[in-house]
């Protein structure tokens, strides 16, 4: 990467300019030339808030206090960005524009973190034309200053234009020299007590800085560790965010100079091994803390390589791109798998970590949110384990395209930020005697919340302060001589167990952006410059059909404020006078969000980054600003609102003779909850207009549902757990996080009254059917007009091998009519199972069968037709084509579809970027990732509240159902709480029979535990090492 500065100086009375041009490679791989005209000033302000030379009366810091002025070189940002952005000793960090240019081209992650840091502070004016005031705490001396210094726009620091060609790295390094010299000369006239530091570890640049800086400049050229030694007496917590070297840790559990893990193979050995087909690479997916697997391809055959034990995992972490070597000596059947794990020398206990909250109550058609990747894993790795050792027909890994292996290299790390807490100092657990203290720092063990991530050694001065706190830690390195990786703290979220803290943990883990919307985003709101309530005006009415006098109403969950959709129905005259059937105009009215969210605006950019509204038990993280979400766009009752309407002429047999779309303005007459609407329908004495409309919609929806099931739509079980709670806040308290400073916060007092399964009503299904019909109708419309750039949603076929295993499991309990050749076959099979004798005797088994079937499903995905080669079929809904149109307030995918639909009916042109295949492909991937994260955050929140409920109210005794039998434990589903967990079994009292499978009591042979048995269980909260787990024990009779 290089650029050329053309010496085209243009002089004016105060400014000069030159053209800077360079060649760059875009993210899409294209090469382009960039040219900018740069204006150069003769005078400039330094930006230092204590400088009386520049800011006169506004500055006034004591000259006795030492001020550290830091010039980080480009190499420091890549390795020590957390230190540069957070350390308390960095009083004034000067970052030249040339450094920012370098980081923009080389490290997007660092530049984004740096930009966020710069946005969070109020910067002093640099150019003299800007009026100086003391508003917004510009001269707050208690916070560190980060100064963007325009070296490229200042004559004394701008690089020599005679240099015709150089790269970004040279430009960045040379700018440090010029900027440092200018600051030294500028502040030589100041009486302030100042020390200058250039931070770098690059030996070449150390020599350049030393040779180019004046001998008496009083500027120290040091690396970050040397710098900390200079300032540690004044700033006792400095350096806490620096990575520390493994050699600093005295690991008493290992002999000196002895490796715990094997060394990685060399790059040459790896490349040669891959070429020869003896080594394989793939993404590691962890199943538990000491077991992972990767999928590889060998001679066009897909294989699964199982990696068992810490030594074979060899310092790899979930998501790493690893290189593995197959080991025939490790190939074994499932029976020997556990013994191999248990014999593995490790500090951790063997933990069963497949503890997944699942769906279980209610009956809905399989849609987009009723299955996920974790569920698919469970059917393979939990529910089927008990059947693989029957009759000596165990599927060895080799017979089932499964092999064992070991990691011999890591090509790419997937290290990220991890939330968790420290092992308490008073822990008597000998497993953690690796910790030892020095005079100023302590080595502590950090336990991540994610059980798939290993414990991390941190090196901190804040040990006592961060006890019992939720921390954010990153991994720095994992040396082969250390059993654990080493890392450092990048954030303190708050006290462990506090609701707001634990909610912050969920949002951080799931990468949910919960920050406030920026002023530029809020300026996009139609009423941003006034306080009055928004009302549509004449411009808003343009090209709209006025439906405000029509009977329009919404049906939503209780407390819903972001109302995306409303319904209406009216009897119309049939075209054919001889027809004996009634025809209706049924309309689904969807909030017209795209009227307010225009392409290429700050609000559109922000919505695309967030992608979804995230729903937690106690809060909602909006995709759009609240004013749009709950007011301007929300189809609230008795207010004029803009909508995008899908209309059908349909009869009572759900036969459709016409479909059309238009933009409308409505005034919803009612905002019902599902229960309120259901009560109106069920009240036979109520023959009002609204009751008649609801009953007509209900009747048509039932036919729609029946027709879809007959085409092969999958009817599976799902549950939604509801929490009845109250929140209040106590008095403000002082917390001191040292490096974060003292801050005022308030704690939430939470009173959880009850946790219960959500009651799914017929009105839920009624609304769902029309939303699905609208999504299908819109998908057909946009594909007919824009076949090569549509955003659709597909559901791939299930994992048929897992369905075969499930069939085998069900046969053990007398269910033999389970078939799955296609979606219609599976749908009919599930329906027939409900009529079987075993289900009639125990109806809950029918729900559990549907739950286990859900586990075999793949995840539904957004995709763009411009790059799809996998078809458009939605397996769960049995629809050839499908998209998302009905929830634009909470899903960005729907906003894209609204734009496509609007263009397809000629209301407005389609923005050019949507014809860009790369853009649409990248967008679909972002939408899939963020939707998944939002779903998981919601489930994490529910699990947190169940934990808090059990912690507040003590052990909960309830009914559980066995959904898998192991030789030492049972997997129990708890309908009341809608989740599952592993209950341990005393192996000395039970014998395991894999052929059934079941556990038989040795003292009482009639006492057995088998699949789908009901058991009495105790649910309780466990917070060992702040893991916040909900545990299950079986209560003996």
UniProtKB/TrEMBL annotation:
One of its GO terms (biological process) is nuclear mRNA surveillance of mRNA 3'-end processing. The keyword Nucleus applies. This is Ribosomal RNA-processing protein 44. PANTHER family: EXOSOME COMPLEX EXONUCLEASE RRP44, RIBONUCLEASE. The keyword Hydrolase applies. The lineage of its organism: Eukaryota, Sar, Alveolata, Apicomplexa, Conoidasida. It is found in: Nucleus. Belongs to the RNR ribonuclease family. Keywords: Exonuclease, Exosome, Hydrolase, Nuclease, Nucleus, RNA-binding, rRNA processing. Its main location: nucleus. One of its GO terms (cellular component) is nuclear exosome (RNase complex). One of its GO terms (molecular function) is endonuclease activity. Coiled coil: none annotated. Gene3D superfamilies: 2.40.50.690, 2.40.50.700, 5'-nuclease, Nucleic acid-binding proteins. Residues 544-907 form the RNB domain.
